[in-house]
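FORM 7B: Structural annotation worksheet

SECTION A. Query
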Amino acid sequence: MEIGLFMMPNHPLHRDYAEGHYHNLDTLAFADAHGFAEAWIGEHFTCKREPLPAPDLLISQALLKTEKIRLGAGAFLLPYHVPAELAHRVSWLDRISRVASWSEIGAGGLPSDFGLFGVDGRHG
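SECTION B. Predicted structure
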């Protein structure tokens, strides 16, 4: 059996964004060192408890701190990206990864993210 990790990631409200980012990196390095097979990183833009507007940036930094764990974005929220630009970023991330990298796409679900990007989240 392989064990995986899904990170939203959820942080205490008092945690600084940069501190949270480095905590996320440490968590991924810990998971790799302890035999986790994969880790998925979620994307949110406006949630103070789950601040991660660019999972690919976190993954690219984690590649320098991990050896075996497979890393993926779960998911890039497509309504908030230009599809061609996102496809290039995901392709580049896959190219620089030493191990398999995955990316998923989703629609999002936070009303505050919908508002930031002017997306009508009531109709899918």
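SECTION C. Observations
Helices lie at 17-33, 55-62, 83-96, 111-117. The chain has a mean pLDDT of 92.

SECTION D. Sign-off
Analyst initials: ____
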